[in-house]
Amino acid sequence: MKESELKAMISLLDDPDQEIFQEIEHNLITCGPEVIPLLEKHWEESFDVLLQTRIEDIIDKIQFDQIKNELQLWRLHNSEDLLEGLLIINRYQYPSMDEEQVYFILAELKRNAWFHMMYDMSPLEKVKLLNNVIFREFGLSGNTTDYHSPSNSYIQKVLETKKGNPISLACVYALVAEKLDIPIYGINLPKHFVLAYMDQDVDAEQKVLFYINVFNRGQIMKEDDILSFLRQLNLPLTEEYTLPCSNVDIIKRVLRNLISAYENQGSLNKKQDIEVLLKLIEE
C-alpha cells in the first residue's frame, strides 16, 4: 500500500462510526510493523485523545502480532538460540529496546572471563571464575526485595538493573558459559531453576558433574541436594528434574513466571497476552 493511502486511512481513525473504524483498524494491522512510524507521527501531531488512544491500541496489536509470529518461527526453526528466544519475549514489554546493548554486555562478561581462563582449569575452577566475573565484578544478583516483579523475567531489564529471578540469572550465566564453550545447561527443577555442569568426557550418556544455584551467587550443589529438594516436594528423582532441559522448556518457564507476575500485579490484559504466547509455544 502506498504511503499516501496509508496516511489517508490513518486520518480517518477518529471516525465516530464504529464499523468504519474497525475496518480501518483491521487494514492497518494487516499492513504490519512498517506502518508504525506513520502511526507514531500522526499520534505526535494530534491533540485528539480518542485518536491517540486508537493509534496506541493499533500499534500494540501490530507489535503483539509480530511477537507471536517471531516466537512461532523461533520454536520451529531457531530454538537452539536461547538468547533470541529471550529477546523476543523482551520485545513484548520493551519494543523499542536497544538489543545491541544486551549483546554487548554478554560479550563483555565473556571477554572478562576468557581473559582469566586457563586451559588446565578444572570445572570447579571455571565455575569459580564465572561466579567472580558475573556476581562479584558485574554485580548480578537475585531480586529478593521485589521477587515477583515482571522485570525479573526480561533479559534486557535484568542486565540493566543487575537483578533477576532464578531462571533469568541462570540464562545469563548459561549464555556466558556457552560463549566460552563451558558445558553448563539449565535444569527445570520445580520451584527453583538451577544449572548443571555436564561431563564432556562421557560418550552418549549424559552425566552431571555438579549443579549450580545461581540465585545463591553460584553455590555448588550435589545430586544429594537435588534429591533432598525433590523429596521435600514429594517428587521423584527423574531425568526431567535432573538433566538439562531444552531452550523451549526454558522459554515456557519464563512465560509462566510472567503470567504469575502480571497476575500478582493485577495486570490482567498483559497476563492474557502472555498466556497466548505460552499457548503458541506449547502447540
TrEMBL record:
Alphabetical list of InterPro entries matching this protein: SirB1_N
Pfam family, one: Transglut_core2
Domain of life per record: Bacteria
Chain ranges of the Protein SirB1 N-terminal domain: 106-256
The family this protein is said to belong to: Belongs to the UPF0162 family.
Protein name: Protein SirB1 N-terminal domain-containing protein
Source organism of this protein record: Sphingobacterium hungaricum
Taxonomic lineage: Bacteria, Pseudomonadati, Bacteroidota, Sphingobacteriia, Sphingobacteriales
